[in-house]
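Q: Hi! First time doing this. I have a protein sequence and I read that you can turn it into a structure. Is that right? Here it is:
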Amino acid sequence: EEQMSAFVLRMRNITQNSVAINTAIINNSFSKGLQPACRNAQADLVVLGAHQNSSVGGLFGNKSIYAGKLIKEPLLLVPGHCRFDKINKIGLASDLSNGRGEGVHLLKRIAKALHATIHVLYAEVGGHTSDQQYREARGLVNIFGTDQIYHTISSKNVDDDVMDYLQKEQVQLLAVLSQKHGLLQRLFHFSHTGYFIRFSQIPVLVLQA
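A: Yes, that's right. Below is the predicted 3D structure, encoded as structure tokens:
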């Protein structure tokens, strides 16, 4: 309770008391407590902080991956070291297997509210683009518009190349889309998904596809 009180005080100082803060302490495991807490709070967005986790070798651990699978609300994973005033570049990592769902439209609204440019990173896994992916690519252009940035990454090291692009272009937020049958099961191979979530140095926004 003391830690919670101290946290609320810090949040009020940061927001200058401009945001209403309600708190609840849940005496349950992470897996059992997360869904009810989100439901009771009628959350529009769930935020998880992260710090260096030596057991998994990255910033975001297994709880973050589990949360992305478990909840239907948009999930924002924020590394503890992040310091920024404005987000004006958002990266969307996709293999175009499902590019026209509600998550894409929500991302468009978020980018508009932030006055941010979307960098669509198409990961050509396996060196082949199907007719369905071409159709999804055209759908993304129709949704986001031609004034956004579209970039194809085709290599054996997709995860490293995505991270290199984000760093080079100084992208401040990485968005990924989750599928009903598992977190990004079709957006990259699952091993790539774990890489992005665990080792991202910028906030990761997980949206329902």
